[in-house]
Fold DNA replication and repair protein RecF.
Amino acid sequence: MYLSELTLKNFRNYEDVELSFSPKINVLIGENAQGKTNLLEAIYVLAMTRSHRTSSERELLTFKKDTATVCGTIERKLGKLKLELILSRKGKKAKVNHLEQARLSQYVGQMNVILFAPEDLSLVKGAPAVRRKFIDMEFGQIDPHYLHNLSQYRTVLKQRNKYLKELQFKKTGDLVLLGVLSDQLAAFGAEIIARRLKFLSKLERYAQKIQNNITQSRENLTFKYESSISDVSGKTVDELYSRLKQYFAENSKKEIFQGTTMYGPHRDDVRFLVNTKNVQTYGSQGQQRTTALSVKLAEIDLMKEETGEYPILLLDDVLSELDGERQTHLLKTIQDKVQTFLTTPSLSEVTRQLIDDPKIFRITQGRVNLQESK
């Protein structure tokens, strides 16, 4: 899979631009605040219908414009696919081959992307919410059922938390309704946990190989899923459903007192272990960065296994955060394997030697010019 063409109208600082890309490596060069990250963001938005930088659609629109359009042509094994996303102050519309999609969840997954930015190093040392977001965004791309269950879970969770707040202040209420909401939440939560365990097991396998290669077999990487309902490994969906229902029933008074749902996948976490030690707590900065890189690169192979297509890789100024050894491993891993978009203020001679025939774009104040690669 690769993005062959991209058209932007009134997106960030791009008023009107049409671009054609290489199916291999595309380098976006420019100083800060010129628009190279905006271009990467547009590709991400085209795939995911949302930005990785802001939750406000208004920020994506060119100043004083009411709508923005992001269009792309995707080359897949089964042929070309036209994607179009229309952003406005009222919301967004998504089209596949000119047909508007009834739900955005039907659109997500047509084009798979992996974004790796400097802040992704916090995947290892950041808060649990960072890792949950990573899991939900990446697994949601490759499994529409996961995305559906996640959407339903969030809706019921919001309703349940609202009702727990009401019970907290009223001291009395309809516990039958709480039971209904608990049952629904347990059903969607069980599906989410089961699919997380499945995908994490596969992701771990690929990440282990990459970590071994980078460290010359000195480090063994494993994942540990930490659930709010104790050990869940090896449990079926039905068993997870029963356990969640049990936790809700046994802790209803505590949850009413707190006014919030204290158990479920929205409270879970993933631990990364290097040689059996928690790398978040005991790992060096180098080990943490190697682990983050291994996990992100492992996504490439996981998406290939699950969808039959390699995803598109977006590297936002990430080379500057990696030392020479990790840069070399990253660039050798992606060369001739996945279409890559790489942003950087400048391209060093070392990097030029590692990248075979890149297509280089120079970006200045929202204008994009093709430049000779050599």
